[in-house]
Design brief:
By secondary structure, the protein is an alpha+beta fold. The protein has one domain. The protein contains one helix and five strands, in the order ββαβββ. Strands 1-2-5-4-3 form a five-stranded mixed sheet, with helices on one face. It is globular and about 35 Å long.
Amino acid sequence: MTPHDIRFEGGNGNSIATAIVVRGAQSELEGTYAAYAWLVNKYGKKDEGWKLVSHSHSVFAGRDINTFKIQLPDGTQRAVFFDCSESFGKF
């Protein structure tokens, strides 16, 4: 995977309706790496700028959604939603 292969579309990830759409990932693993890269770009280095509380997958209205629940340095927790439909189930 090279950085130019992956791009992000859609919304800001604050809800399922505004999920960040991961485009260009060729497998589930690449899609997950891309989501982590987005989080690092937005919030900084993992375990410094944010901590992972949980990561889950669900299907909503036919869309494969990865939900990352994170904790920010001030203790605030938030969920970030990614639409991984394009890469989910590909190995």
